[in-house]
Specification:
- The protein is an alpha+beta fold.
- It has a single domain, classed as Bira Bifunctional Protein, Domain 2 (BirA Bifunctional Protein, domain 2), CATH 3.30.930.
- Helix content is 25%, strand content 26%.
- The protein is built from five helices and ten strands.
- The strands form two sheets. Strands 1-2-6-10-9-8-7 form a seven-stranded mixed sheet.
- Helix 3 packs across helix 5.
- The protein starts with a strand and ends in an 8-residue tail after the last helix.
């Protein structure tokens, strides 16, 4: 039985530390923040991603991808064990597909990005995660990005972190990034999403054996 915890109102460093603890043992948590925070992808630096005058606290993420402004979002840390090594290309859409299914279970308009943007890498000058749509992001029926996803993969486990905006940002993204992206929100309750995700994970027993 896979349990999905709900952990509201935590600082950025605490949220990232708890997500790191999921890897590689496995687990899932849905959480919110104690105000505005930025998380930086594992290969980003604050000096290159954020404006020098950025007023928001930041913390590094264990996953890759671009910077994410938090505080107005429902966030997910999900780690699933793998029975055998698998490529990013194979596992990424499977794991994100579970998140899409959980969002749809909450009645939201959610689709895997590859149906709209194909398999190519996104191109954008922005350090903002929401500045470009990748095949493994989550979009609405208009192709607008409504959930940013980032991955960490080893031979034994996969960790995905996902950010789902549900309100307008607490801080203007123009104060964070040189090229900020528009924000598109979903009407989503964090506890309902956690319950829907738990149901989806247990229905599928995590990652299908055909993938892992």
């Amino acid at each position: 039985m896979i349990r999905v915890s709900y952990e509201p109102g935590l600082p950025g460093q605490t949220n990232m530390a708890r997500d790191r603890m999921l890897f590689p043992r496995g687990g899932a948590r849905v959480y919110t923040w104690n105000g505005p925070w930025v998380t930086l992808g594992a290969f980003q630096t604050a000096s290159s991603a954020l404006l020098p005058t950025c007023p928001v606290r930041w913390s590094p993420r264990p996953t890759g991808g671009r910077a994410v402004l938090h505080g107005h979002d429902v966030t997910l840390g999900l780690c699933l064990p793998l029975s055998a090594p698998v490529s990013v290309r194979r596992v990424y859409p499977v794991v994100v597909g579970l998140v899409v299914a959980a969002l749809r279970g909450c009645g939201t308009d959610a689709h895997l990005g590859r149906a709209f943007v194909g398999e190519g890498k996104p191109s954008s000058r922005s350090a903002d995660c929401f500045g470009a749509v990748s095949p493994n992001d989550i979009v609405d029926s208009l192709g607008r990005k409504v959930c940013g996803c980032a991955l960490k993969l080893s031979e034994h486990a996969v960790l995905v972190q996902a950010s789902i905006p549900v309100h307008e940002p607490l801080v203007d993204p123009a104060q964070i990034y040189e090229h900020p992206a528009p924000v598109h929100t979903l009407d989503l309750d964090a506890i309902t999403f956690a319950e829907s995700l738990e149901c989806e994970l247990n229905n599928h027993q995590g990652i299908p054996d055909s993938i892992s």
